[in-house]
Write a structure and sequence with these properties.
Oligomer: heterodimer
Number of domains of chain B: 2
Helix content of chain B: over 70%
Shape of chain B: elongated
Number of helices of chain B: 8
Distance between the termini of chain B: 43 Å
Mean pLDDT of chain A: 83
Strand content of chain B: under 5%
Mean pLDDT of chain B: 73
Radius of gyration of chain B: 20 Å
Largest sheet of chain A: 11 strands, mixed
Number of strands of chain B: 0
Low-confidence stretches of chain B: 76-90, 161-172, 177-183
Low-confidence stretches of chain A: 81-91, 99-112
């Protein structure tokens, strides 16, 4: 990695050479960066004033399309899956994010430290990070949002909703209107909800689920972003439909997990039968099967490890044949840390499980033994070395 | 892989420029950058970060790959010059990075020119062909060739000249296209 402010400095210099005027904020950042990296001043001035940029002839003649074809030919496994959704960040969005990042950094340095960052006395880390906990924010259309964090006992919300520290229950809801409710689970949290039909949903960190307070007469429809596990109450007359990323999963009474965190969409069916429909087709899934949807491709297979499928909702990091990247994705969501790779990591696959109730330093200790990489915690950054 | 391919296309040339400034040999720079993209493909989570983080990852990978390359190359020379690879670890080659970004942006603008327009410029400036030869090769009239060339220059000027004088602009192009004269 090269520090992002150096990239930003180079980008701003390129903007100036292009003749684009910097905004006042950019100008300020540019000046600050020049002060931080005084040696770069000369090269920027030289380029701007003398218009001199020495790049060999051959570099300017590189045929990018040809290079890309070469890359694709050499790495066919990357392209064997069908094309999937695209993130379209513009160059400016990147820059804006960097500015925000810097602003955030400045604010963070002055602001109070986070309460989940604690001292580590056991493992010799700079600090430890407590695990996530139950929590969510409920947004009701046309009303103020309600925080469902740190509820003691149970709490009766208006309209007959009941919330406890880890579950929200819809029972005998007396809405005159029937508005959409959105349950938003932040990073470092999970939450459970029992919907108006009795269906129980476990919603994972960094996810969002939207539904009508009272389902309609002919269907039960929820919209999901992220990951959730559904234990659907039986109701033959009203199919239960989960919509997520353009894919819909339809069930009558069954148990299944929907994971739409990455572009690779995954549904695991534990019990019963569901119908999964994507843009380019639909398939019936039987109990014990899972489907992976990547772009237009649907790949069905047996769930190889049932325990793994259920682990997250039962409070475990469980990995069977996962590489370190995949393991750390989940760690990142549960501890709210940034993962920084200071070393090129290999694709070795691991097997194991760790309780989600342990602190990050302890998890790192287990992972260190397992993988032989060094894990260093610094504030809410995790470095792999 | 759409996002990946776009990033590949957007950054390939500037990363080559950066790689070249570290290893100093042309053909190999492309190989180093190809390798950096393999590293990126193995770290898919990086793709979900803001663009600047992806860039930081790519530049960092290119630097590390190039330094490894240099070290291997230097093994044979160690006795003559022990300090060849010393100190390399601590450098991010910031100046080279800045140059690479500027060049990358300029190259991007060049590639945005309409195909015919670009081809005409290439023939004139890179292959040093005369208007007549270009007109002949592309089956166009000489006047078309001249206007297309003008259009290209005008476009590039509008992108790059707000702070540079015309002469500097020529210099930049001149140096990029290494020792070829515009006029």
């Amino acid at each position: 990695m090269i520090s992002e402010d150096k990239i930003l400095l180079a980008e701003l210099a390129a903007e100036i050479v292009k003749g684009n005027e910097l905004t006042a904020k950019q100008e300020l950042i540019f000046q600050e960066l020049l002060e931080k990296y005084p040696d770069s001043k000369a090269v920027i001035e030289k380029t701007i004033q003398d218009g001199i940029l020495e790049v060999p002839y051959a570099i300017g003649r590189i045929d990018v399309d040809q290079e890309l074809s070469k890359f694709q030919a050499n790495n066919p496994e990357l392209y064997s899956k069908k094309r999937s959704g695209i993130y379209k960040y513009s160059w400016w969005l990147g820059t804006a994010a960097a500015i925000l990042l810097i602003a955030f950094f400045i604010i963070r340095q002055q602001g109070p430290t986070k309460d989940y960052i604690v001292e580590d006395k056991v493992y010799g880390q700079k600090n430890d990070i407590l695990p996530g906990k139950s929590g969510a924010v409920l947004e009701i259309e046309g009303e103020e949002s309600v925080s469902l964090n740190d509820i003691k006992g149970s709490l009766m919300l208006k309209n007959g909703l009941i919330a406890s520290s880890n579950t929200l229950i819809y029972k005998n809801i007396n809405h005159t209107l029937n508005p959409f409710h959105t349950l938003r689970i932040p990073i470092r949290a999970t939450y459970e909800v029992i919907l108006s039909d009795g269906t129980k949903v476990w919603v994972n960190a960094e996810s969002k689920i939207k539904y009508l307070a009272n389902f309609s007469k002919d269907e039960r429809r929820v919209i999901l972003e992220g990951q959730a596990y559904f234990d659907v109450a039986k109701d033959k007359n009203r199919p239960f439909i989960v919509e997520s990323n353009g894919v819909s999963v339809q069930a009558v009474g069954t148990e299944f997990d929907v994971n739409s965190y990455s572009k690779d969409f995954n549904v695991k069916l534990i019990e019963g039968k569901v119908k999964v429909s994507a843009k380019d087709g639909e398939i019936d899934l039987n109990a014990g099967e899972e489907v992976e949807i990547t772009g237009q491709m649907m790949k069905v297979g047996p769930i190889l490890n049932m325990e793994e499928a259920l682990a997250w909702k039962n409070g475990y990091f469980y990995f069977d044949n996962k590489n370190l990247n995949q393991i750390l994705e989940e760690v990142k969501r549960w501890y709210g840390v940034n993962i920084n790779y200071n070393k090129k990591i290999n694709q070795t696959r691991y097997f194991g499980s760790i309780s989600k109730h342990t602190s990050l330093a302890e998890v790192c200790n287990v992972l260190k033994d397992l993988t032989n990489y060094n894990f260093r915690i610094e504030n809410d950054d995790l470095y792999i070395e | 892989m759409d996002q990946f391919d776009r990033i590949f296309k957007d950054y390939f040339v500037r990363l080559c420029s950066y790689a070249h400034s570290i290893i100093g040999s042309e053909g190999v720079a492309e190989d180093m950058v190809q390798e950096a993209f393999i590293v990126l493909s193995q770290n898919k989570e990086v793709l979900e970060k803001p663009e600047i983080s992806i860039k930081s990852f790519l530049y960092g990978s290119v630097r590390n790959i190039c330094l490894n390359h240099v070290r291997h190359r230097n093994i044979g020379h160690r006795i003559q010059n022990e300090s060849v690879s010393d100190g390399l670890e601590h450098s991010d080659y910031l100046n080279e990075l800045i140059k690479a970004e500027i060049f990358g942006e300029l190259h991007k603008e060049l590639s945005r020119l309409p195909k015919q327009c670009k081809r005409i410029c290439e023939l004139i400036y890179l292959e040093e062909k005369s208007y007549e030869e270009v007109a002949d090769e592309m089956d166009l009239s000489i006047n078309t060739v001249k206007t297309q060339r003008q259009r290209a220059l005008k476009y590039l000027k509008s992108k790059f000249l707000a702070v540079l004088t015309f002469i500097f602009f020529i210099k930049i192009l001149w140096l990029i296209y290494s020792h070829l004269r515009l006029f």
